[in-house]
Amino acid sequence: EITSLLSLYGGQFSGEQEIRVNSPFWILNIPSEEMARGLMKRTVCAKSIFELWGHGRSAGELYASLKNYPMDKMLPYLQSDSTYKVHIHTFNKTLTQAQKIEKIDALEFLPFKGKVNLKNPEHIFWILEDYGMDPNNVPEEPFHLYFGRWVHGQRELIESYSVKKRHFIGNTSMDACLSFIMANHGRVKPNDVVYDPFVGTGGLLISSAHFGAYVCGTDIDYNTIHGLGKASRKNQKWRGPDENIRANLRQYGLEKYYLDALVSDSSRPIWRKGMLFDAIITDPPYGIREATRRTGSQKETVKSADRSTENHIFVSSNYHLSDIFFDLLKFAAEYLVMGGRLVYWLPIYRPEY
């Protein structure tokens, strides 16, 4: 997710940074603080972003690094008329209050001139310590230490778009956190057109609409598209008259980004040829909770009389998982704009993958 957002906003991993899956801290090169704030407004995987003043593999290395940091970059945040506090965060280890105070006092060589304000400071400085990933083998000293000024952080997106509070849901509605990760992988930006060929209750459309993209989708299930049938919510037998995808977008003030949702079979595209979509973001059906169906019959012939009835219900047949993903990749190759992204979930069997 972070890599996709860096390519969207500008920035890259630092040359000093060894990208490790098991490291909770990453060092990035970002052109401006404004871009850093923009990145944090979108990400759901990162907790906070800091202006790095120094780091090292030991306390001595950290202090030496801080002493080499340009003073002209420090001073605007250390003025006598400002307020500040220093916060300590340790990963995989808990420190006593006395240990925290000792580490903060060790920074007395920094020219702090402002007043300490623990409740509402203008500037917050953080000491970050990485004690590794193994809770059963915690070292005495951290593997790496960082010190910096807090710039921005947010995790409110996940809570405000929680599926539990959503008006229209299904048995397999995508978790809000995962849907925003998918939108970020798709590099969704304002005025994009985003399509979901297995739209279901439209959970993936919401995250894209939040970022200013116009959204649409299709699904073979007539009842889901029109909000009919049995409800998925506890203690509710049938869906209400206003339970649909449009109502979900309206709930979050995003209705203006809703293009349409149609009943259609993803294996038989209904769209005119051409590059129509900036991103295709979807969660194809798989597993026992989602039937994989497509229009058509195992029989070679279908009576013409059956087709002519006004209320004809399409005959459907099994849609094998391999065919689903083959058709999805083919569709993306034909309908995505140049540079557009296809984002989807691929089920795997871990012992054989």
Task: Provide an overview of this structure.
With 353 residues, the chain is an alpha/beta fold. The chain has two domains: 2-154, VC0802-like, CATH 3.30.2130; 158-352, Vaccinia Virus protein VP39 (Rossmann fold, 3-Layer(aba) Sandwich), CATH 3.40.50.150. Helices cover 27% and strands 22% of the residues. It has twelve helices and 14 strands. The strands form four sheets. It has a five-stranded mixed beta sheet with strand order 3-7-6-4-5. A five-stranded parallel beta sheet has the order 10-9-8-11-14, sandwiched between helices. A two-stranded antiparallel ribbon has the order 1-2. Strand 4 (83-91), helix 5 and strand 5 form a beta-alpha-beta unit. The longest helix has 15 residues, at 321-335. It is an enzyme of class 2 (transferase).
Could you write a compact summary of the structure shown?
It is built from twelve helices and 14 strands.
In the CATH scheme, the class of the largest domain would be Alpha Beta
Task: List how many beta strands DSSP finds.
Answer: 14
CATH topology of the largest domain: Rossmann fold
How far is the N terminus from the C terminus?
22 Å
Domain unit count: 2
| Sheet with the most strands, sense and barrel status | 5 strands, mixed
Overall radius of gyration = 26 Å
Strand order of the largest sheet: 3-7-6-4-5
Percent range for β-strand residues: 15-25%
Q: Summarize model confidence as the mean pLDDT.
A: 88
Low-confidence stretches at least 5 residues in length (pLDDT < 50)? 300-310
The count of helical stretches stands at 12
Order of helices and strands: HEEHEHHEHEEEHHEHEHHEEEHEHE
Backbone structural class: alpha/beta
CATH superfamily of the largest domain: Vaccinia Virus protein VP39
CATH architecture of the largest domain: 3-Layer(aba) Sandwich
Described by the principal axes of the CA atoms, the overall outline is: elongated
Catalytic activity: guanosine(10) in tRNA + S-adenosyl-L-methionine = N(2)-methylguanosine(10) in tRNA + S-adenosyl-L-homocysteine + H(+)
Subunit structure: Part of the heterodimeric TRMT11-TRM112 methyltransferase complex; this complex forms an active tRNA methyltransferase, where TRMT112 acts as an activator of the catalytic subunit TRMT11.
Main location: cytoplasm
Protein name: tRNA (guanine(10)-N(2))-methyltransferase TRMT11
